[in-house]
UniProtKB/TrEMBL annotation:
<feature type="active site" description="Nucleophile">
    <location>
        <position position="210"/>
    </location>
</feature>
<dbReference type="InterPro" id="IPR002813">
    <property type="entry name" value="Arg_biosynth_ArgJ"/>
</dbReference>
<keyword id="KW-0055">Arginine biosynthesis</keyword>
<feature type="binding site">
    <location>
        <position position="426"/>
    </location>
    <ligand>
        <name>substrate</name>
    </ligand>
</feature>
<feature type="site" description="Involved in the stabilization of negative charge on the oxyanion by the formation of the oxyanion hole">
    <location>
        <position position="133"/>
    </location>
</feature>
<feature type="binding site">
    <location>
        <position position="431"/>
    </location>
    <ligand>
        <name>substrate</name>
    </ligand>
</feature>
<protein>
    <recommendedName>
        <fullName>Arginine biosynthesis bifunctional protein ArgJ, mitochondrial</fullName>
        <ecNumber>2.3.1.35</ecNumber>
        <ecNumber>2.3.1.1</ecNumber>
    </recommendedName>
</protein>
<feature type="binding site">
    <location>
        <position position="199"/>
    </location>
    <ligand>
        <name>substrate</name>
    </ligand>
</feature>
<feature type="site" description="Involved in the stabilization of negative charge on the oxyanion by the formation of the oxyanion hole">
    <location>
        <position position="134"/>
    </location>
</feature>
<keyword id="KW-0511">Multifunctional enzyme</keyword>
<dbReference type="InterPro" id="IPR016117">
    <property type="entry name" value="ArgJ-like_dom_sf"/>
</dbReference>
<dbReference type="Pfam" id="PF01960">
    <property type="entry name" value="ArgJ"/>
</dbReference>
<keyword id="KW-0012">Acyltransferase</keyword>
<dbReference type="GO" id="GO:0006526">
    <property type="term" value="P:L-arginine biosynthetic process"/>
</dbReference>
<comment type="function">
    <text>Catalyzes two activities which are involved in the cyclic version of arginine biosynthesis: the synthesis of acetylglutamate from glutamate and acetyl-CoA, and of ornithine by transacetylation between acetylornithine and glutamate.</text>
</comment>
<dbReference type="GO" id="GO:0005759">
    <property type="term" value="C:mitochondrial matrix"/>
</dbReference>
<feature type="site" description="Cleavage; by autolysis">
    <location>
        <begin position="209"/>
        <end position="210"/>
    </location>
</feature>
Length: 431
């Protein structure tokens, strides 16, 4: 199936499988205007340029790809944030990644930032960060993008649910549905709202953040606290998903906090308030990250890998990631084959301490019925293949692993299966 057949421009084109993940309403943070426009970079007038604008300058934080070939927008945005500037806007183009584009790519990213800043009237210091997603190695079509920036800012930004959905659509590439969530939280009597959007369906495997994601809130979070909250959240959400084991040149997760909801500033010394909003952000980021896995290219299953009794969180996360990235595990899941030996093999080469005589592996069905134990205290179990097939028919599946050490490390990872369609989609990505 060619890539363009996975792109949907309206809800009516979404299959029932995916439409249930698209919200029909939402509650959004105060002080933000969002939207998107078609520049003509993508075919068929698809939305391909989005902006998230804070009415007043916001504290900002981000985590970026560790890929050595960092895309131009990653380099430009990182430099702006390193200067400690407050941020008015995030601008995102889709259809071209502006990655491995040399000096001209950097100039183009800087020109987009400058144009947004000039349009919103912020000319003293750079107050916009930029992101790009799409094909690597091709230059941006600046003649199409730049003229549309004033139109987008002056005519197409809004506060409505429809504006937020439009913004989420404008950052899609091979995604089959716009990924958008929002919720209100209460921190010591103060109500704040978080909204998040992300894109990604392939080239997904984290080592910092992953893909593109944006979390914005009206909570009064200091810049230092926002960075530490984002890092903590990403380590337990976007750094815990995998579709295909590939890490992009453009991966970025960014957060804005404009304080428009009022209340006392939350910083790293705020004790209970800081811990609570950090945990709320983490749960929120997990929900957003999981949507990426559900939309994995060619995926038919959403799989949670839960690892317990590791010596540390990092060990548990490493084992879960190794299982999630194993092509043999992922193809067995697609084929509905309870080949637990592949899971055990991945555990064994993950290079973390394991008590092989106390290791347990189970399939956990999502309908609340009995677990299927595959390995108990290092001993293989007689598998009921009929029961295994029933569990593997579910769209959602959990695999629990107990490493049997004396540690209390625990981590969850979210992944999907690997199907024939994944090869088809990526075999003609540029066509």
């Amino acid at each position: 199936m060619p890539v363009q057949k996975r792109l949907f421009s309206s809800f009516s084109q979404l299959s029932n499988k995916y439409s249930k993940y698209v919200p029909t309403e939402g509650i959004y943070p105060k002080g933000y205007l969002v939207g998107s426009v078609s520049t003509g970079v993508k075919k068929n007038n698809q939305l391909d340029l989005s902006i998230i604008k804070s009415i007043n300058p916001a504290n900002a934080a981000a985590v970026f790809t560790t890929n050595k070939f960092k895309a131009a927008p990653v380099q430009v945005s990182k430099k702006i944030l390193d200067q400690g500037n407050k941020i008015n806007s995030i601008v995102i183009n889709s259809g071209c990644a502006n990655a491995v584009t040399g000096a001209n790519g950097l100039k183009d990213a800087q020109e987009i930032v400058k144009t947004v800043d000039q349009t919103i009237g912020s000319t003293d210091v750079a107050s916009t960060i930029c992101m790009s997603t799409g094909v690597i190695g091709q230059p941006l079509q600046m003649n199409k993008i730049l003229p549309q920036i004033p139109k987008l800012i002056n005519e197409n930004l809004g506060e409505s649910h429809e504006s937020w959905v439009s913004c989420a659509k404008g950052i899609m590439t091979t995604d089959t549905f716009p990924k958008l969530i929002s919720r209100s939280i209460n921190i010591n009597g103060n109500t704040y709202t978080i909204a998040g959007l992300s894109k990604g369906a392939g080239m997904i495997c984290p080592n910092m953040a992953t893909l593109l994601g944006f979390l914005v809130t009206d909570a009064p979070i200091s810049s230092g606290a926002l960075q530490s909250i984002l890092k903590y959240s990403v380590d337990r959400s976007f750094n815990c998903i995998s579709v295909d084991g590939d890490m992009s040149t453009n991966d970025t997760i960014a957060a804005l906090a404009n304080g428009e909801a009022g209340g006392p500033e939350i910083n790293e010394s705020s004790g209970e308030s800081y811990n609570k909003i950090r945990d709320e952000f983490t749960q929120f980021a997990q929900s957003l990250a999981q949507l990426v896995v559900r939309d994995g290219e060619g995926a038919t299953k959403f799989v949670t890998i839960k690892v317990q009794n590791a010596e540390s969180f990092k060990d548990a996360q490493k084992v879960a990631k190794t299982i999630s990235n194993s092509p043999l595990v992922k193809t067995a899941l697609y084929g509905k084959d309870a080949n637990w030996g592949r899971i055990l093999c991945a555990i064994g080469y993950s290079d973390v301490p394991v008590n092989t005589e106390k290791t347990n592996v189970s399939f956990i069905p999502t309908d609340g019925s009995a677990d299927l134990k595959l390995l108990v205290n290092g001993e293989p179990q007689q598998i009921d293949e009929t029961r295994a097939s029933e569990i593997l028919e579910f769209e959602d599946l959990e695999i629990h692993v107990d490493l049997g050490t004396n540690g209390d490390g625990e981590a969850s990872f979210w992944t999907c299966d690997l199907s024939h369609e994944y090869v088809t989609i990526n075999g003609d990505y540029r066509s």
